[in-house]
Amino acid sequence: MNVSRKPWPISLGIFTIWLIVVVGGGLLQVKGQPTQLDELVKSQLIYGVLAAIIFLSGTITYFNWWNKIGWKGPNSSRNLRLLSLPALFLFIMLLIVLFTGLPSTRVLLIVIINTLMVGINEELMFRGVLFYGVSSSFGIWRAAWITAAIFGSVHTLNSLITGDFSASVLQAFFAGMFGVWAVALRVRLDTVIPLIIIHWLWDCLAFLAGSSERLGLVLLFFSFLLFFYGIWLLRGFR
Which tens digits make up the pLDDT trace of 98-150? Predict the structure, then answer.
């Protein structure tokens, strides 16, 4: 189905249903009991995220939005060099994981699958459907900040599962900065596929590295540097 009218209200409606599926699925899976995300991601597949991917895939197909949301190759192979900085940070995170040691094969596979699903789910929603809708009405520069703010804010809802609001606020802060440079790459490359891979590897390596004050400082440094990198990439789209 092709939609000629402004996609912004439609994308907002899709986002609302998506949010209910993700949060509702998570609450059902943990049966309302406070559960740390680290424990959940490493112990079982997250079915709410899988359901959300199925919902998004069906909706995007129905509206014929796959090309519009960036499910295609990059606009130029030369622009792939813009991925060099995040790739460098991912490599450093990989070294940290290898230095601290890998978990059992079962845990490793579950983390890989869960974080891959999260990468697909969140990039299709925020840098795909939502960005397409918002940018069609408000322009690229405003869309970058609006979608990044929504992306960050949504992560505060993790407190409904973990019961730890302060930790979810910190995660929302990191996610908001991630959202800025992720959408900047989305604009420059005109595709969400590399972002799915980056998002997947970022989350996967962060969970495998575990939580520590030193790692938190490293991620904070990376996040701030990439945040300003994203602003630099968006400089021509005011």
Answer: 998 899 999 999 999 999 999 999 999 999 999 999 999 999 999 999 999 99
- Do the Cβ atoms of 37 and 162 come closer than 8 Å? yes
Rounded Cα distance, 4 and 18, in Å: 23
DSSP letter (8 states) at residue 225: H
Q: Going by C-beta distance under 8 Å and a sequence separation of 6 or more, which residues neighbour residue 223?
A: 174, 177, 178
The number of beta carbons lying within 10 Å of the beta carbon of residue 169 is 15
Distance CA 204, CA 222 (A): 16
146 phi/psi in degrees, rounded to 5: -65, -50
Residue 214 DSSP code: H
CA angle 175, 83, 91 (to 5 degrees): 80
Residues in the chain: 238
Interatomic CA distance for residues 230 and 235, integer angstroms? 9
**Would you give the distance in Å from CA 15 to the centre of its chain?**
14
Could you read off the pLDDT of 178-192 as tens digits, one per residue?
Answer: 999 999 999 999 999
- DSSP 3-state percent helix, strand, coil across the chain (nearest 5): 80, 0, 20
Q: What's the predicted TM-score (pTM) here? A: 0.94
